[in-house]
Amino acid sequence: MAISAHFRHRRYPPETYDEAIRRLEAAGHGTPAGRRISIAVEADGEIEVFAIWESPEALEAFGAALVPLLQELGVEVHPPTIHPVHNIITG
User: What pLDDT is attached to residue 68?
Assistant: First the structure.
């Protein structure tokens, strides 16, 4: 079952997000299995991420690499809001 995940961390400005992406790519985690799409938006100087995952397990596997990295960068990590995906329309 596909899920949506909305991440709203604190102390996560665009520069920190960009550094996290660089580090994930360098570590081989830039395109994790099971992620269909990830969209980062800036809201009030903070990055929020909306992602669609093939399953909760795929998200959890990626989280094992992501969460320690974000904590290392000083991000105040909060659990995502997760909902089942009803439909995906592209284009």
Answer: 97
